[in-house]
Amino acid sequence: MKSPIIFLNAFPMNETMWNDQVEGLSGKFQTITFDWRNLTSMESMADDINNQLNTLSIDRATICGLSMGGYAALAFYRKYSERVHSLILSDTRATEDTDDVRKRRFEMMDIARQKGSTAIADIMMPGLLSEMTFQSNPKIVKRVRAIIESAHPELIVSALRAMADRKDSTDLLPHISCPTLVIVGAEDKMTTPMEAEQIYAAIPGAKLEIIPNAGHLSNIEQPGLFNKAVSRYQFPVASF
Ligand code: MLT
User: Fold this and answer.
1) Which neighbouring-strand residues pair with 4?
2) Three-state DSSP state, 40
3) Whole-number pLDDT of residue 237
4) What is the pLDDT of residue 1?
5) What distance lies between CA 97 and its chain's CA centroid?
6) 62: which DSSP letter?
7) In this structure, are residues 148 and 120 in contact, taking their beta carbons and an 8 Å threshold?
8) Is the peptide bond between 126 and the residue preceding it cis, with omega within 30 degrees of 0?
9) CA of 60 to the centre of ligand 1 (A)
10) Among 174, 183, 173, which Cα is nearest to 232's?
């Protein structure tokens, strides 16, 4: 039996953002990806994860969320901690939105409604990848843009609202008692290494992996290093 890992998407990505993890880690783990069905709130996203586990008859899994997926992973832990074997919190933060960020989310909702997902891709792209990726890996740049452009504007609006409404999870961190791995791209401008270090410092026994030459989408930019970080972290099957 392989240990299950369920991968949770960033905004405004879809499950294909995890293709390199499915390919690289399926030999060792049961890798599970899915597209959000109910993006109305972090709690509804936690219910989505719960339903996925029920559908697959999995009692407990490793929950790996990147950015918005990390917000959802923390919401899932808050609501269903008994189903969490371990957490991987990648390129994410525990704090709620500041007023400025929340205001910007509502502006982006208008942009998504009026101009569609291409305009959202134009705004988001510069923050998602490292300079090195932009300069040396046009394939990744093209792939990420294509994923964002394929997102339905209404889905973008729902995700923005869910993120704007999310609770601060800082108070939860010291109570997390499962093994936790924090991963961050060394050049992540959206959820910085400093924020990752704060999460790492607050969760008892957590581990931290900083991925060089990666920005916010560290799993796409450095899939080999990301997968190695996940593999290095031990998930004993017997304890699932
Ligand atoms: C993400 O990558 O999921 C989002 O950019 C996170 C956010 O906007 O807070």
Assistant:
1) 30
2) coil
3) 54
4) 83
5) 16
6) E
7) yes
8) no
9) 26
10) 183
Q: How far apart are CA 116 and CA 109, in angstroms?
A: 10
Asked whether the CA dihedral 149, 219, 32, 208 is positive or negative, the reply is: negative
Regions in the chain scoring below 70 on pLDDT:
234-240
* Ligand 1 binding pocket includes 217 (Cβ within 6 Å): no
Cα separation, 134 vs 189, whole angstroms: 14
What 3-state class would DSSP assign to 60? Answer: coil
Instruction: Please tell me if the CB atom of residue 128 comes closer than 6 angstroms to any atom of ligand 1.
Output: no
What pLDDT is stored for residue 189 in this prediction?
Answer: 97
- Reading the block at residue 111, the tokens are 């942009």
Using the atom order of ligand 1, give the atom closest to the CA of residue 69: 3
**pTM metric for this prediction:** 0.96
Ligand 1: atom nearest CA of 9 is: 3
- Rg of the chain's alpha carbons, rounded to an integer? 17
CB distance 94 to 202 below 8 Å:
yes
Query: How much is the pLDDT for 22?
Result: 98
* Residues 6+ positions from 134 with CB-CB distance below 8 Å: 141
- The number of the ligand 1 atom at minimal distance from the alpha carbon of 97 is 9
Distance from the CA of 80 to the center of ligand 1, in angstroms?
A: 23
Q: Are 23 and 226 in contact (CB under 8 A)?
A: no
Q: Which atom of ligand 1 is nearest to the CA of 93?
A: 9
pLDDT of residue 233: 84
Ligand 1 centroid distance, CA of 55 (Å): 27
